[in-house]
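Tip: read the tokens left to right.
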């Protein structure tokens, strides 16, 4: 019958039963090199050959990966593995090859990208209180496609009429 028997002990008898989680702290550091250029081949544009650029989503993914605390101190072979993964990521986004998503997910799991991966690896993500979170901008720069919330609030606080309807916004 359930519930009968001695109560559980405070300390488990085997070391492997005591799961210790190591805190991962994001400090805003960047590790590794930018994605290599010239590895995607060339394409003809307007009759002239030019190098293929990495897909913008792949650039965002790579920059986020470079700031991931588990990537600190990774040897060159690990970065090479992730460049191969970036190539799959590029093909997935450029050509709509969503069948690559499963392989990318498995490769990301090795580096604790998602919460369940970190738990399995024994890590707990903890942002540093004063640290700035990684942005959605690639390191090379580029404009955000989202309107600034502060600019919107400023426009609303001035009670300017809506340009489309000519009325005040609610």
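Filled-in amino acids:
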């Amino acid at each position: 019958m359930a519930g009968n028997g001695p109560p559980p002990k405070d300390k488990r008898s085997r070391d492997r039963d005591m799961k210790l989680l190591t805190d991962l702290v994001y400090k805003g550091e960047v590790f590794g090199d930018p994605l290599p250029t010239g590895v995607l081949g060339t394409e003809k544009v307007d009759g002239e050959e030019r190098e293929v650029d990495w897909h913008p989503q792949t650039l965002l993914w790579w920059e986020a990966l470079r700031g991931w605390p588990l990537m600190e101190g990774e040897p060159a072979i690990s970065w090479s593995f992730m460049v191969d993964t970036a190539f799959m990521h590029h093909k997935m986004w450029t050509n709509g090859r969503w069948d690559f998503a499963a392989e990318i997910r498995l490769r990301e799991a090795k580096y604790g990208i998602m919460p369940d991966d970190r738990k399995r690896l024994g890590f707990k993500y903890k942002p540093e209180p004063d640290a700035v979170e990684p942005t959605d901008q690639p390191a090379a720069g580029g404009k955000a496609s989202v309107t600034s919330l502060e600019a919107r609030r400023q426009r609303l606080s001035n009670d300017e009429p809506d340009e489309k309807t000519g009325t005040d916004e609610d």
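The two ends are 63 Å apart (CA to CA). The helical segments are 56-66, 76-95, 100-109, 115-121, 149-157.
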